[in-house]
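Can anyone check this?
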Amino acid sequence: MTVALAAGLSALELDADIATQAMLAQYIALLDKWNRTHNLTAIRDPEQMVTHHLLDSLAVLGHLPKQAHLRVLDIGSGGGLPGIPLAIARQDWRIVLLDSNHKKAAFLRQAAIELKLANVEVCAVRVQDYIADFLFDVVISRAFSDLATFAAVARRLVARGGRLVAMKGLFPHEELRELPPDVLVAEVPAIRVPGLDVQRHLVIMEPRAP
């Protein structure tokens, strides 16, 4: 697993030191352990978790703002994807993991404790009921909903100049047509995930000012 992880990080051109790589490997070990009883992901093989989950999450970094102290909200975080890998790789960012499933939220809290991620907050609540203490520079989702629903429930949480980012597989032609006119699609870049031979795209959106 560590060989695949190191090779993937190198392919993504991410400057991850030994300590960061160890934390990422520890996260996969935790996900694998909890997954045996709590069904956090359909993928059971830790090697596949590296490519399908970890590297898939980290591949978005090249398309997110580079600034320090970025405020990120991960909606429908589930097993912590992409939020926990992002929090490990960018420990100067503040990341809130949102999931209404209490078993998944329990895992997220335990992972944050065991990985000593002081930059992570976990909230077990539906996004529709979430009351934020601050607005976010990036609101991201990996497998939450279609684009129109995501934009509808999440746009109120985006700071001025911030972005909604949806992780998708195939280019989502139909979903893009269903977006409301007050959400601007900034770009839809293809994402290359090392070791994963499938199409991946990001949909990066900007809510228009009312």
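Reply from J.R.: I decoded it. Residues 8 and 194 are 5 Å apart (CA to CA).
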